[in-house]
């Protein structure tokens, strides 16, 4: 099956006009040594029905119906059908980046509204139109800080998501940045004010990767005292409950935006939220939509401050980003507008209360305790009396995705399991989880 | 006026009046959300850093939301509405069966941290897509972590860096032709390299002598798009790769234009070492108004150890994750834009080997046919046979009538056809870069040509009308200078000083 509309007669007529005999002649000017002569071993074409059966077969090889208690940035929240219904409009799905503003007002206005709502929940004045994911947004934040301060030191909390730390490290190796990791004590970052090279940035997560709520002032005061930017990663679904990074004085906030409007999708496509201050506006990575007027004085939206971008500035651009995650950003905007101020508070409140209930239930199990005794959001670290990977496997047999093992990224927590709860979990599911975990622990 | 069958020129029914923002539509107390009542004990949430109150979000009913976004959709052009010959962007038709695949509940609801034994189907998707991609590009293995082309470029450059470091070298320069996409030099800077630009020769291809002169021990590699951004196949590619390899440099293939050579020629056979492809171009995943895309990076055998990880590997009849031996580390928080990969796999499997080759044949056929029609009114500065796209110039038109490439682009919008890419590549004055793609019919290709010729004709008699185009779109040309001078980037921002 293919999707080209040409009939044989069309192809013949077109080749004839071009003075060619057959399609192969279109490539006659390519050097013979690079032209494919043999069979590439590619699969045979499939009809739609055969294709759908094949995808179904592949899907059937995933374990179905696991009740999700895994988090670490990607969460199983309730997604109202209206999000998909609107986001899947083909005008949004099948358009390119809105460079031709006159025929792209829909996407542009949707992004302007997305920027407005992301700025509102983070308490910072400017948001870009999305980045790839939370981790790469963290990298872009560091990149901005390095450019802004001209320094090469980056102070990072060990409580920052391990994958974000890894991406920053991947990049730092090529750029010869000096990463200084600040340890956690009792579940919170213990900042060392006299650490290594002068920092461009002080980067932390609120709540941190263990789910624990950090002390904003400690990080922000440290950063500003050292002449660095204070950069916070946040959980968007908790911004109705936890103080915003803008209110706390941060210079940049970023987040994994998946919980807003997007299914877990095996981790992609998701989106990175990125917000900052007016002072840093001209260094903002990624696309930005502004409101202006057309020739008739009607309100119009357009991509703006484009002199930051790669297609104009080339090697002097603030970032190399071209394709971003627009459709995911539209989904996030629809979801945020569906929630409104009180719905966002309700999601956070329910998730946190259910997390507290589950934490209470599972710590009644003999040998199971919280890894740290500190106030948490909707996620908490357990210490199990068995290898957490084994526990996750055994829980999967009982129908639960029990959490994310911490022992690989945090060897100091050998039995560590990060458990996340959303508003979607019912009390029955929480009780069943606790009962299943009790069996798994006692069987071990 | 209805057009004859097969023509995609009917003006879309796009809304002509301004759409209020969600904040304008907001009314205190209105609500769309609902959740079940809390079924666990409630009480005060005692945490430090408590928010003082709810954030300032709009309050709307679901009905308001649906009407708002549907009206916004009406104010947006898209491939599903009509021809989109936007050069370099490969705005081909996105098959609906691939959308179906990406919406499959067996994949949509997977968590990225699930143990591999519960996600065998997803790992199989990655393996299958990787195998097809490697066969098409002539590479050994690929990573799907890079979520876009530019991210693929950065990944490729970090691999180059790791390769040279492993050999105890630290060359600092990347060679890039002057016709390259802007992402190339931006990625090079981000990776900590400096850019050395290679001039094009009179054919519109890399000047081989300039390359020979530029290559020395400080050259880490060459980044090249082939066919290049003029739509021309770099005929000296084998020799170019040999020259770069002589100083142990690596040759990077920017896959932006891979569509033109699918199943016809392979970057691996041309001497490339690292290849990124844009699934949102070549493999028909939709552009989503600017994303999500996917920019997988494939490499030759000797670079596999440096790939980002983890990668899926076969272990008997199971698949598991494994970090490559000398990996550069992660470049995405999870496994890349997985659902985009699933869509692309559906497309590749639907087409199979013969269909994928037909993509190249018909995209080149459409472009060359369109070029031959358009050349009646527009100059083709580099006349070598084009591949899947061509670059025409409105320089003569501008001299004769004052109508510029941008005006031509805007006038096309009035005719229900999306604009081509303009003012790129930089080596062509008043460039119009046109890529019809293989999914437009002969009739549509002819309609694009007729529109371009009609605009040239109109420019001769009423240039001002063309210069003021578009006339029947939801808005006319926005005041970009005002937008940049006094930025209004959220609905809370006031424009300083007024208009």
Q: What strand line-up does the widest sheet of chain A have?
A: 2-10-9-8-7-3-4
Going across the major beta sheet of chain B, what is the strand order? 1-7-6-5-4-2-3
Strand content of chain A: 15-25%
The best one-word shape of chain B is globular
Helix content of chain B: 25-40%
Residue runs with pLDDT of under 50 for 5 or more positions of chain A: none
- By DSSP, the count of extended strands of chain B is 12
First-last Cα distance of chain A = 53 Å
Give the rounded overall mean pLDDT of chain B. Answer: 94
Low-pLDDT runs of 5+ residues of chain B are 1-13
**CA radius of gyration of chain B:** 25 Å
What integer value in Å does the Rg of chain A equal? 25 Å
Protein architecture, described:
The complex is a heterodimer of chains A (444) and B (499). Chain A is an alpha/beta fold and 444 residues long. Chain A has 2 domains: 67-77 and 341-443, Aspartate Aminotransferase, domain 1; 81-335, Type I PLP-dependent aspartate aminotransferase-like (Major domain) (Aspartate Aminotransferase, domain 2, 3-Layer(aba) Sandwich). Chain A has 12 helices and 17 strands. Chain A has helices spanning 8-17, 48-60, 81-87, 90-93, 105-122, 134-149, 162-175, 216-225, 310-313, 326-362, 388-397, 427-443; strands spanning 67-68, 126-127, 153-157, 178-182, 184-185, 188-189, 199-206, 229-234, 252-256, 272-276, 289-293, 299-303, 369-370, 379-383, 400-401, 404-405, 416-420. In chain A, strands 2-10-9-8-7-3-4 form a 7-stranded mixed sheet, with helices on both faces. The radius of gyration of chain A is 25 Å and the shape is globular. The relative contact order of chain A is 0.14. Chain B has 2 domains: 98-350, Aspartate Aminotransferase, domain 2 (3-Layer(aba) Sandwich), CATH 3.40.640; 358-475, Aspartate Aminotransferase, domain 1. The two termini of chain B are 39 Å apart. Residues 1-13 of chain B have low confidence and may be disordered. With 499 residues, chain B is an alpha/beta fold. The longest helix of chain B has 37 residues, at 338-374. Chain B has 16 helices and 12 strands. Chain B has helices spanning 22-25, 62-74, 96-102, 105-108, 120-137, 149-166, 183-190, 208-214, 237-246, 267-270, 338-374, 395-401, 405-414, 442-461, 463-467, 480-485, and strands spanning 141-143, 173-177, 194-198, 219-225, 250-255, 274-277, 297-299, 311-315, 318-322, 390-393, 421-422, 431-434. At the A-B interface, helix 1, helix 2, helix 3, helix 4 and helix 5 of A face helix 2, helix 3, helix 4, helix 5 and helix 6 of B.
